[in-house]
Design a protein that fits this description.
Layout: E1 2-6, E2 12-15, E3 20-24, E4 30-34, E5 40-45, E6 48-49, E7 59-63, E8 71-78, E9 81-89, H1 97-114, E10 119-120, H2 121-129, H3 150-166, E11 171-180, H4 189-196, E12 202-206, E13 209-212, E14 214-223, H5 227-269, H6 273-282, H7 291-316, H8 319-323, H9 338-342, H10 344-366, H11 375-393, E15 403-406, E16 412-419, E17 423-432, E18 435-444, E19 448-451, E20 472-474, E21 479-482, H12 488-495, H13 497-504, H14 510-533, E22 539-546, H15 555-568, E23 575-581, H16 594-597, H17 612-615, E24 620-624, H18 631-651, E25 666-670, E26 673-676, E27 683-689, E28 697-703, H19 716-727, E29 735-739, E30 745-749, H20 759-763
Helix pairs in contact: 1-11, 2-11, 3-7, 3-10, 5-6, 5-7, 5-10, 11-18, 13-14
Length: 764
Amino acid sequence: MKLELTNSLGYSEEFPLKSQTIRISGFFNYLQLTLGEELLDEVKINDRIFYCNCGSDNKYVIPCYMSRENSSTIQFNINGKTIRFVLKYDEEMYAGDKLIDSFADFHRTMKDWIGNEKKAINDLVQAIQDGEIHLLQIINPLSGLDDESILEDINRVLPFALDICMKPRQHLRIDEEILAVELVKRINPSSLQHLASHSEHWRARTITGLIPSRLRAEVYEDDINIYENIFFKMVVDAILKYVVKKHDEVKIAISQKATLLDWEYYASEVNDYKRIEMLQNLLPEYDSGNEDVVRTQFKKLKDKLEMIEKQISSIISTPFFQSLDPIERLELPIQPTNIINMDNRYNELFKIWNKLWNSDKKTQEDISGASISNIDEYYKVYVQVMTIYALYLQGYTFQKDSCISLTSSDCFNINLKLINENYVITANGNKCGLQDVLTFKIEESLNYTIKMPASFPVSLVGLEDEEIFKEIWEDDNQILLFRKKPTTILEKKLSQVIKKYGDSRKNLSNSDSIELKKLDLEWRKQLSEQVAKMPENRFFDLNLHMLFSRIGSSEKDLLKYTTSILESAEHNKNCAHIYVLPIELHDFSKVENINVLKRLINFGEAYGIEDAPKYGDYRVGIFPVSQTDLRSIQRLSKLFNLFVNHQLIKWGTPLTSCPSCQSNNIIKVDEHSWQCRESDCQLIWGVTRCSTGCNEFYEWMKPNLEVKINQKTDTQLDKILLTEMIFDRLVITDFEYKNDNDNKFHYYPRCPKCGHSSLNYHSN
């Protein structure tokens, strides 16, 4: 028997096959169990049965899914013996109970909505629009905040807390210690009795008595770690926890408001009416006219919370607070002692404690707690539903048979199909190694026609309804329009239509029979020649990996974990791997290395010069999707616009309508570029050559309009987020920008293959 732990980078370590706990720091870990004559009865992952198949080498592969406890527990039953293998992940990767419960709630909502039925994708879209399913959490930290609020009470009791730090209640504690005689201030009869029986403490013995060198004496000390002061520390900690939580809510709310304003502003700047329409559909109650008032309120609340945090910091930094036992906690509920009841300071803190405790208790009752077992599936379902709605907001039309269903193991299956004159998109669940992925196949839609002979006697009306003829259209001019190259079976069926027609006719004259045979031969020959000329449909697979994991906020953690993710992807010229995580970008605001930060908002096109050769050219990317980040829907929308348009340009597919406004007013600018001629669009796209790096050709697209930047960027993260917002889904490459003295916007694309931009070149 052999047990190996392998990570995404291919590193393996062997462990003895016994119950044990180990610590790990990375994604995509899996166990490989190799057995000889032994029999594997059962495998459980986080207490759920996992069905794994045995390979030809008698090897079992078991993924290490993360649980609520930030660990994976793999239980093997081998020949009736139970072995528990526990993997503890780095604390930085833990998402937290609040986030876990949020996605679990969404999963329950989806499960209740679907029930035991198979639901159409169009029904899902309607349920979202009707408010049955909520995709986003709009944070309103002002709700419930009035004169009687907890926050006001906190502000009122903090002076009492500070006064306790200056003049705390304490008890006098008497201890007995062995001290040098010169340090003894007070003795009692027991001191002399102890000296008489301990000669080691004698300095000398005279005729008058003993001269001591050390004595046991009473030592009087003030004891501050009494019940009431331990309670005091607990309530201060609880207040701080509440205030920090509220402060985080405010920061998210302010960020959401800023995102909405930027969304609306830059959509207007580039005349992106589709983006404005998306915003209206996503948040129908959004009113930009009222935003100034709300933002002012949020700012005041933020200032107030920061002031309270400073007060709490002053309390925590006092010598008294620092001297309290940092570990000791009291058994709940807190007992109102005489001091707590009679000392007004402690009593006021007791009142706020009860409010905080009851509030937290109610919150705990509202969440599912230990019932949560399949965190990865919860997040996967959320991202899938968000993706569907993003496609809908983009204007995609789902085929009637596109559906979503629930399996017996509470997993969701999604199958959908989107048809455009230039491409077909199909999506379904798939496996990429051990990872569950949602694969979108972008397949080129041919416009290959075969003109049938003028004397063709057979009508093909209706045949397009048959399964075998789904990709064929027929019009009044008797032209077959092929969206893809026919299969051998389809070609055979088509070649036989005249013969079958002749066989069905009775009493044909010899001349008619001869004429039909002649037409049959001509048709067979023509069809064979045309099908032989017909190209194969080109395709591209977009693999969406949904990872319920966090990343540490330091540059070191960011580099470490993103490398683990990026290196796990299998590189193939016909596919891309995009990894989606529920991370909060503001956690990384202190990271100054912009090239490392770019790894977090990346579709495979935005890497710097070090990363681009390894991960660029649309091969592998990472970006965040969460319930509170309003940019999530924009990123998912851009995901499809970027990959679809990039592939169409790369394939040289002639676009008959503008990728942005869908206008047919398109002109060819030169050999390699085209432009929409609508005055309020002017999108330009095509192929260009990298002039500052690899010298390779790459595809690009951007609006040809002036843009005014309405804010400054204080951090590298701010700069990346602004770049993301300016053109949104109307670009397929990363870019840099600068404003000249006239505040005119200058756009410099970044080569997705080598990571070089032309900004420095033009600056010099």
